[in-house]
Sequence to fold (346 residues):
Amino acid sequence: MHRIATLDGHSLITPAAVNREVLSPANARSAEADRSMAEAEVALILNIAARQIQEQRAPAQIISRLISSLHDLREKTGALWRDLIPLVQNHPVAAYFHEDPFTRWSFEKPRGYSGDAHLIDFIYGHPSTADEIARATPLGKTLYGYTRQAPSAVAVRERRDLLTRYVDSVADERGTGTEILTVAAGHLREADRSAALHQGKIQRWVALDQDPQSVGSTVRDFQGTAVDAVDGSVRGLLTNAYSLGTFDLIYAAGLYDYLTDKVAVRLTQKCLSMLKPNGIFLFANFSTEVPDDGYMETIMNWTLLLRSHADMLNIVDASLEGERAERQIFFGENRNIVYATIKKPA
Ligand SMILES: C[S@@+](CC[C@H](N)C(=O)[O-])C[C@H]1O[C@@H](n2cnc3c(N)ncnc32)[C@H](O)[C@@H]1O
Fold:
């Protein structure tokens, strides 16, 4: 009765009142027990890794066990998981995995933020990462051989190739006047293999990114082509800071994973408003089926907003606000990345 009286929707609901009700002494005791159990489990996982390292087991065996144990623990512990992350990051075994130059780049964040374009170059195996890989210890090289074959990395390479195919097929269909906008373009590696770009079928390919170093690299790599690298941000797009015109294809990959639903919807609406009739908007997101999520969030300190098919559809539908448009949600081959496309009506 007491609970109904205070949380009945009429009384003032303050955090203190909710805590009093939800965290009753009995509930608090059980939450404390869950936390102790979760902490004990993470300690066990890390101790097993430490023992395997000491026994000089094969690095692939050690990392694969850790990845799958952290994934299971993340799933099992729900809201408690967030508090376990520092326990993993501060454990001595983290140093072993940081010998992998890809994992270390992610953890140290030399560019000051997560998921920069150089990090993705480790996944692509791009020559720009050759020096760091050459400088890695033999263990680091072996671990990198494993992490670059992780399902999420395989999906990122497939994503790059899928983007190239979209660009080329839109350019084939629309001819030499084709205009493309890439939001959060990074180093625009998908353009390296674009037949349409090399055959001069694209009139203008705007590659927008907020990192001046990445913009500089795109300017250098694509000098003399239709690529126009622009130093700009999602915020700039949303506040109409640029006059970019309209496009046949607009896409964003490696960006929505960092955007809340609210910003994702606003950006989708903005991009739809910049499409020509029959233009296509595509966005990609890591899916909730990523098996190395626990390793990424702890050892790599790389947190992403993972989305399901339903989450993607919600963003698309909220963006369309009841307007009719052809829309599609689909997964890549190993289901680690999910895609949404919207076609603007003629
Ligand atoms: C994971 S990388 C993806 C790069 C590229 N799209 C790819 O698929 O390889 C993310 C990129 O998003 C850019 N980025 C992140 N937040 C951004 C924002 N708010 N506005 C513009 N670019 C952003 C970063 O600078 C980085 O280059």
Notes: The pocket of S-adenosylmethionine is lined by residues 115-117, 120, 184-186, 189, 209-211, 214, 233-234, 253-255, 258 (CB under 6 Å). Residues 2-91 form one domain. The chain has a mean pLDDT of 93.
